[in-house]
């Protein structure tokens, strides 16, 4: 397998030659560099220290020339043919920083070095054209062990320059080129090394990372202060070191080298980043099977890189975390949320819903800061709110009520949930109430569900506003639903009824529409308005229609109050169906009065409609009721056929007939009643006809 890239197009690289000509100097070059870079190259192309014994193959030196944006890789040979001792030839290949990332093999560069002779100097004034072919290193076991030692020291002590004694029978150049080739491009172009240094080649501000000493001579070692000796540093057993060593000999077979290229490009750290990136690569291989590895990677990034660099590495971990959002711990989930702008668009779109769900399940309150931002974070939060089942959304509101305004904005149907209107929501201020009512007003289909939710939440304080904005009809329909749901009315509903009855025409229209309202709702309305308050419409009394269609139980006292109320309305002047109202209510009210169990409130609603007598008769409430009913039928000439069935009690009917017979007008009315009865002889009126005859003949 190739180092890190496959075969590339041929490259043109510039070169330079240094050697002796009345002193060490540049003899030829295919490009002019900046003055500072030329000075650096002049110094580093000279002998690497007094007393250095250069072998036949020479030695390598690698260093950046930042002013010109090139990396200098040089081979230096001894030049014994020159008249002055210690002279050298140095051939330097200048690699543009951009080309460092595209070279198929850095090892292949070594084959392009040429030791000059006096007749070939002109060849170095032209650029090199090299074939960009991949070359795999061949490292012996001893080379691997020494390479492992160097890797351990270089990246285990990343802030210090490193030196090592050049081992015998090991191709030092190949090992160092393999180490250099393993690095990601940004690290490569800052890495300084020399394969034979008899003195420290570092300059102020430009330390060499790795220098190989020619011998164990103590005097040579003393020339390198403040360095780490690789041989004197223990080589630990470590997974990152195992993989990095293996990668030297078989590049990228575990994916390490490609990983380093991918994530190292935006790192400002140099050697310090190598070990943690190796650890990150090892963790990344288990992201899909071991979600806790993502949490470990998050902690690694936090401690080793912080939040300001290694964005690609952060994005890689965030990408993996997004796919496992539901299985992450809190720290890892926060990491993913904070770095959503680093993940791939495809990963984000494919996992947005699962991330939103994970955030919601962990803490609904975490959505608020996301909704207040823009970009992918807001999108995640909006989709979370948009896709949650309503029962989960309401449960989340119970856990975190400040989310209510955001739920309103993205799920307006939330107004139909009682928890939304909870009085526990401290954020439910006037501005929020305005938003809620505006939302409901824009969508009429939300009005009934919202009113029902307000009722369930006991937000009786909204009754007047709701009536103004949605109308009395909607209020009564919502109250009816509330009663149907509970099976009975509750305390507090009268506040809603009191608000609704401010629009009497609307109430009359609704009650007269034939809807089956709860009987308890009619009782509530009766408590709020006078018997004559509602106008009749379309030739019918809305109260009569409502009572005939009413369903559901009420207490005995409530039913008596309603009947007394309706009887009072019948005795007034507003109803178009007084006879029918009397027929519905007379028996129950007379029986209650006779038995002394009519509630006082029911009596008060009726009493002002009844005639008064001398004080010795005024105590007889039954008499007053009977008299009022008889006068109603007689004076207003109401339907005689209804009078025939005004009571089921024959004795009571006889009393009513005798009362009607006390006046001429009453006797005329009784005659019409008699004729009606005779026309319905099959209806069993024989005894009641006799009662009327008796009343007429008294």
Descriptive report:
The protein is an alpha/beta fold and 698 residues long. The chain has 34 helices and ten strands. Strands 1, 2, 3, 4, 5, 6, 7, 8, 9 and 10 form a ten-stranded mixed beta sheet that branches. The model is unreliable at 1-5 (pLDDT under 50).
List the helices and strands and how they pair.
Blueprint: E1 11-20, E2 24-29, H1 35-44, E3 59-65, E4 70-78, E5 88-96, H2 97-100, E6 128-130, H3 141-156, E7 162-165, H4 172-182, H5 185-188, E8 193-194, E9 210-213, H6 218-221, E10 228-229, H7 239-249, H8 256-264, H9 274-284, H10 292-304, H11 311-323, H12 330-338, H13 345-362, H14 367-371, H15 375-387, H16 390-399, H17 404-410, H18 430-442, H19 447-456, H20 463-470, H21 472-486, H22 493-500, H23 504-511, H24 519-528, H25 542-549, H26 556-571, H27 578-594, H28 600-607, H29 615-618, H30 621-635, H31 640-643, H32 650-660, H33 664-678, H34 686-696
Parallel strand pairs: 7-9, 7-10, 8-9
Antiparallel strand pairs: 1-2, 1-5, 1-6, 3-4, 3-8, 4-5
Helix pairs in contact: 3-4, 3-7, 4-7, 7-9, 8-9, 9-10, 10-11, 11-12, 13-15, 19-21, 20-21, 21-22, 22-24, 23-25, 24-26, 26-27, 26-28, 27-30, 30-32, 32-34, 33-34
Pfam families: GAP1-N1 (PF20012)
Number of helices: 34
Task: Calculate the terminal CA-CA distance, rounded to whole Å.
Answer: 130 Å
The residue ranges in which pLDDT falls below 50 over 5 or more consecutive positions are 1-5
What is the beta-strand fraction? 5-15%
Largest sheet: 10 strands, mixed
**How many distinct beta strands?**
10
Question: Rough shape?
Answer: rod-shaped
Calculate Rg over CA atoms.
Answer: 51 Å
Structural class: alpha/beta
- Arithmetic mean pLDDT: 91
| Percentage of residues assigned to helices | 40-55%
